[in-house]
Amino acid sequence: MSAAVKKILEIIPSLDRCGAEKQMMLLAAGLPRDEFDTHVCVLTRSGPLQAELEKAGIPVTLIGKRWRADPQAYLRLRRWIGKLRPDLVHTWLFAANAYGRAAALAQGIDRLIAAERCVDPWKGGLEFTVDRYLARRTQRIVTNSVAVRDFYVEHGLPSEKFAVIPNGIDPPPAVSTTREQALDELGLPRNARLVGFIGRLWPQKRVKDAIWAADLLKVIRDDVHLLIFGDGPQRERLLRYRDQVEIRDKVHLLGQRDDVARFLPHFDVLWSTSEYEGQSNAIMEAMGNAVPVVATDIPGTRDLVVHEVTGYLVPLGDRAAFARQTNILLGDKSLAERLGGAGRDRMRNAFSVTGMVQRYADLYREVLG
User: Do 282 and 199 contact (CB within 8 A), yes or no?
Assistant: First the structure.
């Protein structure tokens, strides 16, 4: 290997098919190989994205952190960093930001970049104390939106260390599955209108709001089906709620699937009911497929969805607004096509993977300089 090639270590808690994990995978696979030798270290557990990293020739190491406070995992990570001797360490999300930066510093690695990907209201005094302490020894802190940067600056992190690099999205792959085939596979009638939800089933996503909105839609039209792709700790609770409101025939919890891309182009609308986000990959992928979006009006999502141009932003928790705006889109084909096309153009022009990787490469050069 040429002496000019710099060794980069990306540290992340998991390789689940989630937002930060997908962006890290796209970055690691896209960095120029003649300049960067990229390695990935997974702190807690692997996941489906490991196969994509290995396909791209990126070495992956699993540390196996088991508990929130796991000294043995920290020691394993520290030894691994000492063995690898990276020129730069880039950590993603709180657990990796904390364990990864501390272990790198203990091994004398002082070129550090941290990634804060979301407005994180769950954090308390301890977490922000850790963030502020480690920020002193961190060269740059990357966020994917101005809203995330502002959130952390308000909690005491130094504004001059932040860089905003928006998420990137690849052009959607060609899909051979027809709408009729998708409906048949899902056991739905040919006249079904499809509202999609993609995300982890946990409190932040407010999936119950989506089910509630679907119940409201059922009152005014009988052709709408809500497809929920994803899994998580709230799955059983959501199934019980769906059955209690007697909407089993219209709400379908399809679990974690690796073939969502086959169904996404056939959505009539995508819903994002989240309480907080960084930049939602689900929204970006829907817009890339020219699917209009109805989403909560929250920081991060505002960077993606332009109200009444690429979709609709509605107040957090306003299930009636989700139902109302969706009904308008389902009843006006030309409006839905106009908003969907504008969303596709916005993704192509402002959120390309190539642009995202180039911005990170420039940042790495700056820190390594």
Answer: yes
147 has a pLDDT exceeding 90: no
Set out the domains of the chain in order of their start, with CATH numbers: 6-168+352-368 (3.40.50.2000), 179-350 (3.40.50.2000)
Q: In what order do the strands lie in the sheet with 36-45?
A: 60-62, 36-45, 6-14, 88-92, 112-116, 140-143, 162-164
188's enclosing H/E stretch is none
Both tokens of residue 222? 């009988």
Shortest CA distance to 105 belongs to which of 127, 92, 86, 126?
86
Could you tell me the two tokens for 24? 């890290």
Rg from Cα positions in the chain: 21
Instruction: Answer whether 255's CB lies under 8 Å from 227's CB.
Output: no
Please tell me the pTM assigned to this model.
0.80
Give the Cβ contact number of residue 68 at 10 Å.
Answer: 6
**61 token code pair:** 């190491």
Q: Which tokens go with 93?
A: 């999300």
Report yes or no: 368 and 37 within 8 Å, Cβ to Cβ: no
Burial annotation 167-204 (CB, 10 A radius, 16+ → b, else e): bbbeebeeeeeeeeebbeeeebeeebbbbbbbbbbeeb
3-class secondary-structure state, position 13: strand
pLDDT at 44 over 60: yes
Inter-residue contact 205 to 229 (CB < 8 Å): no
CA dist 103 and 174 (Å) reads 43
Query: Which DSSP state fits 184?
Result: H
Composition of the chain by helix, strand, coil, percent to 5: 45, 20, 35
Residues 272-301: what's their mean pLDDT?
94
Determine how many CB atoms are found less than 10 A away from the CB of residue 360.
Answer: 25
Structural element, H or E, at residue 41? strand 36-45
Phi, psi at 35, each rounded to 5°: -125, -30
